[in-house]
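re: ur question from earlier - yeah i can do the single chain one, its not a big deal. heres the input i used so u can compare w yours
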Amino acid sequence: MCGVLVAFSKNGQLNENDCRNASKKIFSRGPDFNFSRFKLNNKLFLSQTVLSITGNPKLNLEYSISKNKRYEILFNGEIYNFKELQSKYLDKKDIYNLSGSDTETIINLHQVLDPIDVRKIIHGMFAYVVYDSKENKLLVSRDIIGEKVLYHYEDGNLIVISSQLGPILEIVKDVKINKDILKKYFFTRHLLTQKETVYENINVFTPGETLEINLHDNNKKIVNLEKLTDLIDPRKIEDNFKKTNDDLLVEADSIMKETAKIMNPDIPFYTVVSGGVDSSLVSKYIKNESKVEPKYICLKFGEKDKVASDVQLFEKYFGNKIKEINVDIDLFHSYLKECYQSICMPLPTHSFISQAILAREVNKNDFKILFTGDGGDELFGGYEFYKSLKYDSEFDYNPSIYSGVFNQGVNFNNFNFEEIFEESKLEWAGTKQHYDNFNSVETNIQSILLLDTKIQLESVGIRATDTMSMMSSVESRAFFLTKKILEFAINLPAKNKILIADKVETRPLMKQLFIKNFDKSLLKPKQGFSGFPNESMRRVINNYKNTIELLEIKDFENLNVDDNLALEWKLLNVEYFLKFFLNYDK
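and the output i got, formated as tokens:
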């Protein structure tokens, strides 16, 4: 896992000091090696920092350039099938992988295949920028689910692309806070930055998008777009309706085993075991296919955490101790400042702190990889909230608290809730169209889970995994987000994800898979990520003055904040962010 930074000046030369200082902001993402290059008479700056998982990091400088010297790559992520691609396309042409890294294979593929074809055949998690020196173009691409984030800024003078916001803020001197995005946060459960960010003119590259930027004329065009909805196959869903639960269980088991084989690293690693369904299954499948003995880790939150309290009962299934980290208010609080200054925005959810604690513990033990269960809840219907909906209703809006928008009683000057509500309704209607041939229950469940995967998972779950883990130079691997598991989950009938019977049962298929691998007594009710967000934040925030004034909150005195922990967290979260970044609105 690595950090990527590109800056291009449309007029004149770049400020070298600003560019070099910006590159330092991503060093934690890759401490093994980093390099920077100025090109085009200092109009173009390319910078890469490397966390070496495959190959020799000291060779990355030389082998991030294609053998024919035409292409250069800045790469963040992991390509799981690079050895297969090397053998199939390059070895026979005497273009050998001398560094042993996936980066070298990917860039050399560009000289034997069309760049779009390269994008289509690689499997893994990635965000990369390829510079074509012959055509003077940049090619920017992200994986379909968006495991690796890429931000971009553009104005009349500059284009900046980065794995994190911090480097952009270092190069661009007049960035302003995007007040509308902060206001919108008060109408969603979590901070969702699917397209825009909390800064004006800094946006997020769309997952699955491949964008070509012509540096001659700054013309931009999308040359390929791979969407989650492309994976929907109504015929597969119909075929899966005809299969028995046992048939689907065998298929799920086979896909999980295959995924574990593909994702298993050759170096020692950790995997999270929280006591829940997702992390337990990930850890078990990874262990069964591992070439090296995994280490196991769990965060425990005292009285707040009933699921992890018995996590030691899983040790007999893994044949190893589970490292337990007891988190209290003091430990949680000690990470606040570093996390905010790293992500440079309000935390999309308080579990970002937990992810940071996990990664730091992994790093302390000199490990580089951490497996997680990210995506399991969205793909397979795991959230407790899913039990509360009446799925036979005719919804004309997205009813999910995770990806929908709702008026939660906070009013602002100069903000139109109806506008964002209509946008959400349009996306809901567009998603439902993919399930036109099914009844309302099937359509509603499938649409909710797909939008929660598309919107919340990318903005919240895997954004936390990427940014907070890389703060400690740890690569997090989300087991459930390989393309094969995505296709399988998206085309499962709704009843295998949310079963409507006498009462609503969440993720029935995954629970059956859990029982197949563990004792049924270990299956516990779903519990959300614990922590001490409000308690720790109250130590440093005693009013919401900046938030109220900047966002122009109306009738704040009438809001019952003390009895609403969710609203209190939002206010604390934004106020703490402004404590460090309010100067960007001056």
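The radius of gyration is 23 Å. not sure if urs matches, ping me
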